[in-house]
Amino acid sequence: MTKREANQQRSLEAFLAKKAEFDALLAELQQASDDHFGAHPEAVLWGETAWLTNLAWEAAQLPLYTLWWDGSPSEIAWAVLHCTLGDGIIGAVTLGGAWLLTGAWGWPEVGFSRVAIAATIFGVGATVLLEWLNVELWRNWSYGAAMPRLPPLGTGLTPVLQWLLLPTLCLLAARRLALAR
């Protein structure tokens, strides 16, 4: 075997070893998904639903931000994680604030509409404020040319839609689960 052939053989073996590791990780991830990431499907709370839907939304709207075009893969991954965690904080604070403001102690069975409306208003308000601060004032991120913007502050349309649609869907899911028990 020539030196070139031996090098080719070692390269192939290294590639196949890394591919096997990657395939094993994919198999573990698939198994975790099949097992609903350790959550019993009938016991999933609105928080898990909200986390996964916000994670998917954050990833889907990335092409509307300049980061998608200018950022490294690690910067993009960090942004998705950071924004999803921020969504979780916003969601918890807005739901808790709405629950306290409305006094709907039996929620979601009692006072569902009041809490849902208040949480949606708080969530959209927080989003408009945080998007304005991060885009215009602090310049932590910026919108790409494809991002539709809303007057008067130029807030991106997709972050506002995120807080109009996702909490509503997650709260409806929470109510459905609560009423089914």
Write up what this structure looks like.
- The structure is a single chain.
- With 181 residues, the chain is mostly helical.
- The chain has 2 domains: 1-34; 45-180, no CATH class.
- The chain has 6 helices and 2 strands.
- A two-stranded antiparallel sheet has the order 1-2.
- Helix 2 (46-60) crosses helix 4, helix 4 packs across helix 5 and helix 5 packs antiparallel against helix 6.
- 19% of the residues are buried.
In short:
This protein is mainly alpha-helical and 181 residues long. 73% of the residues lie in helices and 2% in strands.
Q: What topology does this entry show?
A:
Elements (H helix, E strand, L loop, with lengths): L2 H32 L11 H15 L5 H5 L2 H30 L9 H26 L11 E2 L4 E2 H24 L1
Antiparallel strand pairs: 1-2
Helix pairs in contact: 2-4, 2-6, 4-5, 5-6
Which tags fit this structure?
181 residues, mainly alpha, 2 domains, two-stranded antiparallel ribbon, 6 helices, 2% strand
Q: SSE order in H/E notation? A: HHHHHEEH
Number of domains: 2
Which strand order do you get reading across the main beta sheet?
Answer: 1-2
Mean pLDDT: 89
- The end-to-end distance, rounded to whole angstroms, is 70 Å
Question: Which geometry do the CA atoms define?
Answer: flat
* Backbone structural class: mainly alpha
Instruction: Count all strands and give the number.
Output: 2
Largest sheet: 2 strands, antiparallel
